[in-house]
Amino acid sequence: MTVRKFRQLGLIGCGLMGGSFALALKKADLVDRVIGYSASHRTRTRALELGVIDAIADSAAAAASGSDLVLLAVPVGATPGTLQAIAGHLSLATLLMDVGSTKSDVVAAARANLNERLPCFVPAHPITGKEVAGVEHAEASLYDNCLSIITPIESCGADQLVAARELWQRLGCRLHEMSPESHDDAFALVSHLPHLLAFAYVNGLAGQPANRDYLSLAGPGFRDFSRIAASDPAIWRDILLANRTEVLKHASHFRAALLQLEQSLQQDDGEALRLLIEHASQTRGAWSPGGLPQDV
Amino acid sequence: MTVRKFRQLGLIGCGLMGGSFALALKKADLVDRVIGYSASHRTRTRALELGVIDAIADSAAAAASGSDLVLLAVPVGATPGTLQAIAGHLSLATLLMDVGSTKSDVVAAARANLNERLPCFVPAHPITGKEVAGVEHAEASLYDNCLSIITPIESCGADQLVAARELWQRLGCRLHEMSPESHDDAFALVSHLPHLLAFAYVNGLAGQPANRDYLSLAGPGFRDFSRIAASDPAIWRDILLANRTEVLKHASHFRAALLQLEQSLQQDDGEALRLLIEHASQTRGAWSPGGLPQDV
Predict the structure, then answer these.
(1) Distance (Å) from the C-alpha of residue A181 to the closest C-alpha of chain B?
(2) Which candidate, A82, A262, B77, B275, has a CA 20 to 30 Å from the CA of B35?
(3) pTM of the entire predicted model
(4) How distant is the Cα of B293 from the closest Cα of chain A, in angstroms?
């Protein structure tokens, strides 16, 4: 396979995801030069100091100008404004991708803002991450062996789609393609809803008078169940809002399932309770990770 | 410190928790002989073959007879019947403990069944365990460095209480004492409610038509959040039923906290949503395990 090497990556958002992408591209010798922009002055300066980027752009548009690869690695909520800012600065042959956790909203923002540059855009969601955010934690190995999801739309340029597939595979990712709508429904269920429930659980707990004493007794069950409740508030506000229709739909299914369990408890119906737990236990027991080594 | 060595452990329930207790006692040279009973013929035979016990008792009463230490390691629901069966077979100086995940119900069962042998009983809950059940998985190290909770009641014999404290510490446990009621309220919140929510989440997910496809996309967030949903149905039926008042109370607090999050989503109120997530994120971010190396 002839591997395309990019002349310049325009990185918009030099945090953990974007910074790691730049490092991975450099390590795989897939890019000559990285020019980066972050809204935060500190972040873009640190990215330069750390060798994550080779030059600082003073705007998203400046990062996009003259780049044959542009990666959008900003919180989902900042995507529409960024797309609008760069639309007039993309070349016809540029591959533009994002790494957002929701896809329908990003696709809608692309359709609304990219105009004749819409073919440049291939929506992507690499399933990776870390507990900690920020360019300081960026590392070339973040995308190693992860699942990367592409949600092609009919407007995707043929060359861009081929280049996107090749790029993620060259970074060591397994590739999966699905529609933006299926993606958002799936991740509402397997990622966004668990976050919502973990936030609710910890907030309910925090409201208890004895919560400090009780927390000192908590063990590994608590640790694992509540781990994702420590996630970044701004990032998760954006994800949950962007995908709220699907998240609320799955939350209502969860409520119904919880009610069944509560009713069996209220009615002291041990056999009904056991069957409900057995259903959950067998479903979860049969699951094994699809080789996803990093965080959603 | 003079360490008391027990002449005979009467082990009632030779599964993971009971079997590991016997092995740990032997390893610490705290017992001369272990006689064991399990309702399952296969379990007691395997326990003998594996050297977990030195002799098989053909009933719970026979395991208690002549033992100066008796450990009840049966599902919580089997406790009342077992206590009734052994009450007439305990010596005055015997130390009787359980390892159940709920304490108020066990204390009530002891009060109702032990009669003049009630002073023998010191309720205990070592915070340890494994994903897998059964005597085959028993190991002497299961109690190493774990937190062991004792919930003394006014009827506890002074000698028994001293012996119980010494025993858990000699097994390498950190000791914590609290009332049965506080114990059950605390564990309803930090252990039983998370299990209930994880069961509900997985059952809600299992009801979705595309759940098989979606599960193949699930990553570490899902893995950790849902891990406890794979727990043993009979054991968790008993725990949730035994502690249902506290569990249902905390479940209602959880529902209120979830409703707040859902409402901020429905109202598209990003700032309210961010504040709710931030509250959870800070609470969970500030938590660190109290050195509990094993599962609740």
Answers:
(1) 13
(2) B77
(3) 0.87
(4) 7
